[in-house]
Write a structure and sequence with these properties.
Elements: E1 2-11, E2 18-28, E3 33-37, H1 44-52, E4 59-64, E5 67-68, E6 79-82, H2 94-103, H3 109-122, H4 138-151, E7 156-160, H5 168-185, E8 188-193, H6 196-202, E9 205-210, E10 213-218, H7 220-225
Parallel strand pairs: 3-8, 3-9, 6-7, 7-8
Antiparallel strand pairs: 1-2, 1-4, 4-5, 9-10
Helix pairs in contact: 2-3, 2-4, 3-4
Bound molecules: adenosine-5'-diphosphate (2 copies).
Length: about 230
């Protein structure tokens, strides 16, 4: 589905240049829960930002259904991102935060209201629709961020360490919640983490990264059997 071909990213020039990604190659399947796992500085965020369109590659292609999305502006890519810090609008209500994604696309009001209600129901926040997002707990705010990212109907959802700001108990709950959302929507999730246990519990497949390269791609089962 998403074919990552010879993708590279360099920052800076000459002696000061850093190669954050070295001609990375792999394919992510439709509906997969795919995880980028590796220590800080290995290039996970760089790869995610290239897919999102927040940054442009130094070389290579990102082919989605035969089209190189690396040449498309971010707002035209069928991709949405959930960030570690949620990035909600604190003075807006939960409902307004989710509606914003559709208003930005210029959708009619009659379409927005039912879509927002359905999405809040999916993340089990219907009862908090009229609360300010700043009044919610961390886990609830992350659910709002998920609803806002999903309501625009992307093909791919990018999750950049979305659980790392949460405490242990909430983190476990949100792991289950994320898996449920992925199953129910059938979307492709690309998940970034440095937490091996989290990767093993959640993923269909894991790309193990270090030093700007993908060292191996395996299922959790395969990584247990021969790590
Ligand atoms: P990770 O997400 O795995 O922690 P990053 O993708 O953030 O890793 O970083 C990979 C490498 O690229 C690191 O060496 C980092 O310092 C470098 N890097 C990332 N972004 C920039 C940038 N904008 N300018 C210069 N170097 C960068
Ligand atoms: P480009 O516009 O070349 O595609 P980006 O969109 O990746 O580059 O811009 C990189 C931004 O990320 C910079 O503005 C910088 O503030 C930030 N950044 C992230 N990690 C680093 C790092 N390790 N060193 C410097 N800047 C970084």
């Amino acid at each position: 589905m998403l074919d990552i071909r010879e993708l590279s990213k360099r920052f800076g020039y000459g002696n000061g240049a850093v190669t954050a990604l070295h001609e990375v190659n792999f394919t992510i399947g439709e509906g997969e829960f795919f995880t980028l796992l590796g220590p800080s500085g290995c290039g996970k965020t760089t790869l995610l930002r290239l897919i999102a369109g927040f940054s442009s590659p130094s070389g290579g292609a990102l082919v989605l259904d035969g089209k190189d999305i690396a040449r498309m502006p971010p707002n035209q890519r069928p991709v949405n991102t959930v960030f570690q810090n949620y990035a909600l609008f604190p003075h807006m209500t939960v409902g307004q935060n989710v509606a914003f994604a559709l208003e930005a696309q210029g959708r009619p009001r009659t379409e927005i209201a039912p879509a927002v209600d359905a999405m809040l129901k999916l993340v089990q926040l219907g009862h908090l629709k009229d609360r300010k997002s700043s009044e919610l707990s961390g886990g609830q705010q992350q659910r709002v961020a998920l609803a806002r990212a999903l309501v625009a109907k992307p093909r791919i959802l990018l999750l950049d360490e979305p659980l790392s700001a949460l405490d242990m108990k909430l983190r476990k709950d949100m792991q289950i919640e994320l898996k449920r959302l992925q199953r129910e929507t059938g979307l492709t999730f690309i998940f970034v983490t440095h937490d091996q246990e989290e990767a093993l519990t959640m993923s269909d497949r894991i790309a193990v990264m270090s030093g700007g390269r993908v060292q191996q791609i395996a299922t959790p089962r395969e990584l247990y059997d021969r790590p």
